[in-house]
């Protein structure tokens, strides 16, 4: 749905099509081959027996989005959400929302709630064809994870290592040097089982021992050099309380979570590519042992979103919030979903953005203007137009009483609220009035016009958009020489939309708001948060690169149609861009509007 306006913006010009990608190809091929056709689904997550007793899975594929509830989701997560939920939707599958809460610290209900909200707001759900909700918490799988660890010990492929942390690190080797076997590596199964039970029973302090998979200390892939799979951690967990004092490592927990949920395609970012051999090693063992259902999940990697002028590390974003540099996770400058939402982004614009940037394995930076282009494109035919004056200067029409018979006379005016009508509907209109005094932009008057200036200067005529042609006659100044009021005369019979209105030719039409019906409003002019396109790449200090002018607040006058604005309503303020009524602070008595984006791509210009 391109429009002439957005076509000027080269980033938004591409058609919204669903390009194929390597993941779609893999899924199509799996569906053709029937790889997953015979899978059974036990109705909820579980082991092999549980799923075998279930029905043939009505979901053709299962994907998952597995956030750790330790922060708010950001635009990078949106890419992963749109990908995983989008593939499930397009291939008659289901995408699970799984909280990866196996780490006892840092996790919080506030984050859980915000993540659920964000995924719903983006327009996705996690329901089976029968309506069952696939919302899961990885911490509910701790019992099975323990059982899986015991099984590995019994098979002779896991052992309790009690080397010091330093020795363990030194003995791991590095890229050029193979590792050295731990002196604990050849413990008997019985000894390992006993020692692991002691770990679980709280007999060992934090850091005293870890359970390791026994694979190959000389493997060229360091992730296969006997990776740790369980550690001792005497910490309370938000879900399981003090039941456990040992916790699984992420690399052990994640494949098991996927397997219990019978995920078919486990899609993650490229950093996990080197973990895939361990993912397969672990699930091969558990499947061969009959612990998890077949066919087991497969992991696929794609490159994460790198967006210019944005940071997407939860840790760094948390710092911006905790240090008070920004107003919260939903500060409209934050690249979080709640921040984008408050800034005026729509779910459609974010989904289109994710579609447009595609899915590859390439390392690439996406220009921020691509995201803005998607928002403009979505709002172009949806957001009602309005005139506002952001830097108000009063203008008086000195012949008003003479022309209209009274200084208090007001004339009704109207303009279209949208450039085009929706199918079968009339173009909506907005109404306002003009009287003796109007607010204009300070920059629309020049006492001495610079070359090429077409707006107000003594002797020049312009049109007040949707109102009359006026002719500037001069200005009033204060003692310091500042302009306090512009003076002009109204040209009779030139009201927009009346016969003969165009008989007087002008070179410019300026935006304005009537003094008698304009509404005072707070307008928050947001700009990019960082001055550097890659603020945290290559070890840069992102805090030193923050844009000091990322927020400018002005008291503006807005046209009376905006009296009806409700929080979250979006508008195009003519000539200034797209704005949203702030979802937290806006009220009819105290209107507050946030700038979402300018009208055209001005980045780097
Ligand atoms: P951070 O390092 O900022 O905490 P994370 O990747 O650890 O982020 P998770 O909660 O573990 O955050 O992420 C959930 C999912 O979102 C993961 O599957 C992860 O791959 C994906 N994801 C996170 N950041 C991005 C990104 N920039 N682009 C694409 N996917 C991402
Ligand atoms: Mg993570």
List the defining traits of the structure above.
single chain; 605 residues; alpha/beta; Glutamyl-tRNA Synthetase, domain 3; seven-stranded mixed sheet; 15 helices; 25% helix; elongated; disordered N terminus; binds magnesium ion; nucleotide-binding; aminoacyl-trna synthetase; Gln-tRNA-synth
The CATH class of the domain at 11-142 and 251-308 is Alpha Beta
Question: How many helices does DSSP assign?
Answer: 15
Shape descriptor: elongated
List low-confidence stretches.
1-16
Class based on secondary structure composition and strand pairing = alpha/beta
General description of the model:
There is one protein chain. The chain has 605 residues and is an alpha/beta fold. It is built from 15 helices and 29 strands. The strands form eight sheets. A seven-stranded mixed beta sheet has the order 14-27-28-29-25-26-15. Strands 23-20-21-22-16-19-24 form a seven-stranded mixed beta sheet, with no helix packed on it. Strand 4 (94-99), helix 5 and strand 5 form a beta-alpha-beta unit. Helix 4 crosses helix 13 and helix 13 (347-357) packs across helix 14 (368-379). It is elongated. Mean pLDDT is 94; it is low at 1-16. Residues 66-68, 76-77, 79-80, 268-269, 304-305, 312-314 line the site of adenosine-5'-triphosphate.
List the helices and strands and how they pair.
Elements (H helix, E strand, L loop, with lengths): L3 H4 L14 H12 L6 E2 L6 H5 L2 E2 L5 E4 L9 H16 L3 E6 L9 H13 L13 E3 L4 H13 L3 E4 L3 H7 L17 H12 L9 E4 L14 E5 L13 E3 L1 H11 L4 E5 L6 H13 L9 E5 L3 E2 L6 H9 L14 H7 L3 H11 L7 E2 L1 H12 L4 E3 L1 E2 L2 E6 L2 H5 L6 E6 L12 E6 L2 E5 L19 E4 L4 E9 L5 E8 L18 E2 L1 E3 L4 E8 L24 E8 L11 E4 L3 E5 L10 E6 L8
Helix pairs in contact: 4-13, 9-10, 13-14
The structure holds adenosine-5'-triphosphate and magnesium ion.
């Amino acid at each position: 749905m391109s429009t002439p306006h957005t076509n000027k913006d080269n980033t938004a010009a591409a058609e919204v099509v669903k390009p194929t990608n390597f993941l779609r190809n893999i899924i199509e091929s799996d569906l053709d081959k029937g790889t997953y056709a015979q899978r059974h689904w036990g109705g909820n997550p579980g082991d092999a027996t549980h799923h075998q007793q279930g029905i043939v899975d009505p979901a053709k594929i299962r994907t998952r989005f597995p956030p750790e509830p330790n922060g708010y989701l950001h635009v990078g997560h949106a890419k992963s959400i749109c990908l995983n939920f989008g593939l499930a939707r397009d291939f008659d599958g289901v995408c699970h929302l799984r909280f990866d809460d196996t780490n006892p610290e840092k996790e919080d209900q506030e984050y859980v709630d915000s993540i659920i909200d964000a995924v719903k707001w983006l327009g996705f759900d996690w329901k089976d064809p029968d309506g069952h909700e696939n919302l899961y918490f990885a911490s509910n799988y701790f019992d099975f994870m323990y059982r899986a660890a015991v099984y590995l010990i019994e098979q002779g492929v896991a052992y309790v290592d009690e080397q010091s942390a330093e020795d363990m690190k030194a003995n791991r080797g590095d890229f050029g040097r193979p590792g050295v076997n731990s002196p604990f590596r050849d413990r008997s199964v019985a000894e390992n089982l006993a020692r692991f039970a002691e770990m679980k029973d709280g007999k060992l302090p934090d850091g005293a021992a870890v359970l390791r998979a026994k694979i190959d200390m000389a493997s060229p892939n360091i992730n296969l050099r006997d990776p740790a799979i369980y550690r001792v951690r005497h910490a309370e967990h938000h879900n399981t309380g003090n039941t456990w004092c040992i916790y699984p490592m992420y690399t052990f927990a994640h494949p098991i979570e996927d397997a219990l949920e019978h995920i078919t395609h486990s899609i993650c970012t490229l950093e996990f590519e080197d973990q895939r051999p361990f993912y397969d090693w672990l699930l091969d063992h558990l499947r061969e042992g009959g612990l998890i259902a077949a066919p087991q999940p497969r992991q696929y990697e794609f490159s994460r979103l790198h967006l210019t002028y944005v940071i997407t590390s939860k840790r760094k974003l948390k710092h911006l919030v905790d240090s008070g540099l920004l107003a919260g996770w939903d500060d409209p400058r934050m690249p979080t979903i709640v921040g984008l939402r408050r800034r005026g982004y729509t779910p459609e614009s974010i989904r289109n953005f994710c579609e447009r940037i595609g899915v590859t394995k390439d390392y690439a930076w996406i220009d921020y203007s691509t995201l803005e282009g998607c928002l403009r494109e979505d709002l172009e035919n949806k957001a009602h137009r309005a005139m506002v004056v952001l830097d108000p200067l009063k203008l008086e029409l000195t012949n008003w009483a003479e022309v209209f018979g009274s200084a208090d006379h007001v004339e009704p005016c109207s303009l279209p609220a949208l450039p085009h009508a929706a199918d079968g509907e009339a173009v909506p209109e907005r109404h306002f009035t003009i009287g003796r005094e109007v607010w204009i932009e300070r920059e629309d008057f020049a006492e001495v016009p610079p070359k090429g200036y077409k707006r107000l200067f003594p002797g020049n005529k312009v049109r007040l958009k949707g109102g009359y042609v006026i002719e500037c006659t001069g200005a009033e100044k204060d003692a310091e020489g500042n302009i306090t009021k512009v003076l002009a005369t109204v040209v009779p019979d030139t009201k927009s939309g009346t016969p003969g209105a165009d008989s007087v030719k002008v070179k410019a039409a300026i935006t304005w708001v009537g003094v008698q019906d304009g509404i005072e409003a707070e307008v928050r002019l947001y700009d990019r948060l960082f001055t550097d396109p890659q603020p945290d790449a290559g070890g840069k200090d992102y805090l030193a690169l923050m844009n000091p002018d990322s927020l400018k607040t002005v008291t503006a006058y807005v046209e009376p149609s905006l009296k009806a604005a409700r929080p979250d309503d979006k508008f195009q303020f003519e000539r200034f861009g797209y704005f949203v009524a702030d979802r937290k602070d806006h009220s009819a008595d105290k209107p507050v509007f946030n700038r979402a984006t300018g009208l055209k791509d001005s980045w780097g210009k």
